[in-house]
Specification:
The chain is built from three helices and no strands. By secondary structure, it is mainly α.
Length: about 120
């Protein structure tokens, strides 16, 4: 078996403890609605932040006197942006994993309440 935490988590999620009737519907809902919406929202926020940082940098670069320094600052931003994208993909993978695994978990049921004592 693969040693990846994702596959181990999925193996635990699809074990015999999962409810037989409710989990297919929860998986379907997560795969086709909840998870894509969460990923889209997460990515939209990230892309918005990256665009805002790029616009601020371009504004700063327009006032830069030395063209070599401007190119260095833009190269540094692109390097930082590439690292941010790789981190973002890891966050999206964790988000998808948590959404899928949460759909397969048994929901806690309310404990049965003891019957009320008779009034004397």
């Amino acid at each position: 078996m693969n040693d990846s935490a994702i596959f181990q988590g999925l193996a635990r999620a699809f074990s015999t403890g999962t409810p037989p009737m409710t989990w297919p519907f929860a998986i379907w809902k997560n795969c086709f609605f909840d998870c894509p919406m969460a990923v889209a929202s997460h990515m939209q926020q990230f892309v918005g932040r990256q665009m805002q940082e790029q616009v601020q940098l371009l504004g700063d670069l327009s006032r830069e006197q030395n063209p070599a320094a401007a190119v260095q600052r833009e190269a540094a931003f692109l390097q930082q942006s590439a690292l941010a994208w790789s981190n973002e993909m890891l966050e999206v993978a964790e988000l998808v994993q948590s959404r899928v695994l949460n759909a397969t978990q048994i929901e806690p049921t309310a404990e049965p309440q003891p019957p009320f004592a008779r009034a004397a």
